[in-house]
């Protein structure tokens, strides 16, 4: 039985995982790099160990060091969060070899889904619809040309070792196919050390809809419905919601069954996500499987009423799933916004640095998963995600209004953030109507990137808020020293709390 969990991650997800551990009475262990000495996950944990320099290859990706810490501190399990080592089959295997429980899937399942050609083969065998295309890797130019005469143009060349948009090439003309394959191959070789590529028919303006699944080690597999993730930019999700405004109850049920079969096809256990692309006629195709807990998991937790991290831990313990498919329902509507330290008006340039002031939104139906505090400096070394704001309401319309309200309450100074950009999205007709696809941001760029923003109400409000921001900045400058002191106050109150407990 798991008693002590090492969380091999940082930031909001490390805190989120430890919250569930604490509720389960498990001891939590943080690991941290040089840049993360003052991070909240380090303060939150019962124990914390330094694992190396700031660059993630030397810290959060350092398998040897993390295993060494786990053994030294007596952790019986490791939760990898998302990113970093979460989908690394060598890490999953190494944990097994060391007698440490990896809170995630088997190395075999990670491997089967990590190779996209292998994954497609498993899906075809299991009767899960895949995008029309090649069954095996492309071995010759003739074969590629044969494929495009069969399935028609346009097509996408994809790297088998890729995923998440890496190593893809769109081909419109027959004359482009040879050079596109060469380019995709060489990119894949450099990025993944594997130059295998395959061809798929191009699905224009698709929706990205993914299904959450849970599977125990005894063959019970369930799905927890879908997440609509079509609001994205350069393969980075921006907003996710559930239920998807696109799906009908019939298609939802069908896709859910396919998602369960997809997981079963690779003897999957743990939490996982089956990604589909869906066209406007509701044709859907398996795209890939993510063999980890995802950033956007909280919207599913809220609408289905399940703590996915607790379920992951119970599964890792070898327990039977208590949830039954026929008892699961989607209740109400949830939306998540990802708040980044970035300049949305300057090509989303990361904006790391000192948080001078932060006040988080609260109130009915709001969940806030974050890790920064006043006086904290967002490091340059990692993804500049500050927090995730999740709202729930009975209807989609109310959820959008609630998100709009929450974003307006949310104030951060010191770094540039995507808060205003996200607030603008809440006022865009395509979003409000739920009639958007993966081209949403580029289709609405004229509104999203205009500056200054003049929203639903009037220009006066924009001017007043600009002025208030200006006054805030003056105030913040004056209080810079006080704000620094507040960090140590935070520390003190943290210690006092620990003593009380
Ligand atoms: C596609 C596609 C159209 N047709 N495959 C992008 C990320 C990677 N998971 C696969 N992706 C796509 N694959 C075919 N055959 C369009 C995309 C795509 C996309 C998919 C999901 C969410 C956003 C996207 C944005 C651009 C392209």
Descriptive account of the structure:
With 501 residues, the chain is α+β, with helices and mostly antiparallel strands. It has 4 domains: 4-103, 3-Layer(aba) Sandwich (Rossmann fold); 132-201, 2-Layer Sandwich (Dna Ligase, domain 1); 207-453, ATP-grasp fold, B domain (D-amino Acid Aminotransferase, Chain A, domain 1); 460-501. The chain is 39% helix and 25% strand. The protein contains 18 helices and 22 strands. It has helices at 11-23, 40-44, 63-73, 89-97, 107-114, 116-126, 141-151, 177-192, 249-265, 297-305, 308-316, 396-409, 419-425, 429-433, 440-443, 445-448, 459-478, 480-500; strands at residues 4-7, 27-33, 47-52, 77-79, 101-102, 155-163, 166-171, 197-201, 207-215, 221-233, 236-242, 270-278, 284-290, 333-340, 342-343, 349-350, 353-354, 357-359, 366-370, 377-378, 385-393, 411-413. An 8-stranded antiparallel sheet has the order 13-12-9-10-11-14-21-19, with helices on both faces. The chain has a 5-stranded parallel sheet with strand order 3-2-1-4-5. Helix 12 (396-409) runs antiparallel to helix 13 (419-425). The longest helix is centred in the last third of the chain and has 21 residues, at 480-500. The protein starts with a strand and ends with a helix. Mean pLDDT is 93; it is low at 487-501. Bound molecules: ligand MV4. Ligand MV4 binds at residues 131, 156, 163-165, 200-203, 206, 208, 232, 235, 277, 287-288, 438.
């Amino acid at each position: 039985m798991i008693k002590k969990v090492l969380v091999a991650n940082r930031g909001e997800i490390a805190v989120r995982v430890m919250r569930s551990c604490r509720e389960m009475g498990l001891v939590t262990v943080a690991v941290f790099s040089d840049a993360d000495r003052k991070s909240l996950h380090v303060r939150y944990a019962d124990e914390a160990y330094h694992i190396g320099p700031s660059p993630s290859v030397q810290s959060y990706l350092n398998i040897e060091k993390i295993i060494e810490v786990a053994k030294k501190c007596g952790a019986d399990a490791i939760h990898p969060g998302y990113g970093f080592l979460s989908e690394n089959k060598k890490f999953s295997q190494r944990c097994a070899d060391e007698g440490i429980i990896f809170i995630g899937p088997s190395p075999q399942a990670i491997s089967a889904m990590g190779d996209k050609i292998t994954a497609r083969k498993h899906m075809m065998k299991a009767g899960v619809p895949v995008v029309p295309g090649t069954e095996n890797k492309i071995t010759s130019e003739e074969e590629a040309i044969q494929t495009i005469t069969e399935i028609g143009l346009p097509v996408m060349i994809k790297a088998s070792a890729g995923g998440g948009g890496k190593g893809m090439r769109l081909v419109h003309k027959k004359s482009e196919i040879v050079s596109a394959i060469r380019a995709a191959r060489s990119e894949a070789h450099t990025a993944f050390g594997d130059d295998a590529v395959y061809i798929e028919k191009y699905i224009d303006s698709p929706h990205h809809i993914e299904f959450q699944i849970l599977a125990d080690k005894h063959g019970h597999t369930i799905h927890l419905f879908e997440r609509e993730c079509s609001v994205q930019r350069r393969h980075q999700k921006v907003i996710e919601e559930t239920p998807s405004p696109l799906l009908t109850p019939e298609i939802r049920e069908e896709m859910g069954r396919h998602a369960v079969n997809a997981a079963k096809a690779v003897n999957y256990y743990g939490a996982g996500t089956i990604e589909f692309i869906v066209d406007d006629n509701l044709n859907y195709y398996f795209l890939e499987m993510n063999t980890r807990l995802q950033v956007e998991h909280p919207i599913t937790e809220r609408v289905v009423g399940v703590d996915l991290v607790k379920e992951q831990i119970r599964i890792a313990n070898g327990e039977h799933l208590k949830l039954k498919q026929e008892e699961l329902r989607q209740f109400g509507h949830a939306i998540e916004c990802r708040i980044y330290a970035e300049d949305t008006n300057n090509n989303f340039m990361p904006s790391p640095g000192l948080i001078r002031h932060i006040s988080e939104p609260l109130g009915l139906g709001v969940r806030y998963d974050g890790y920064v505090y006043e006086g904290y400096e967002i490091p340059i070394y990692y993804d500049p995600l500050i927090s995730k704001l999740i709202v729930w309401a009975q209807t989609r319309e109310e959820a959008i209004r609630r998100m709009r309200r929450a974003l307006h309450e949310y104030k951060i100074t010191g770094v540039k953030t995507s808060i205003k950009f996200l607030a603008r999205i809440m006022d865009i007709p395509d979003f409000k109507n739920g009639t958007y696809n993966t081209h949403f941001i580029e289709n609405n760029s004229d509104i999203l990137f205009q500056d200054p923003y003049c929203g639903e109400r009037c220009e006066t409000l924009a001017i007043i808020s600009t002025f208030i921001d200006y006054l805030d900045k003056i105030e913040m400058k004056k209080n810079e020293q006080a704000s620094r002191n507040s960090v140590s106050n935070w520390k003190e109150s943290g210690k006092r709390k620990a003593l009380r407990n």
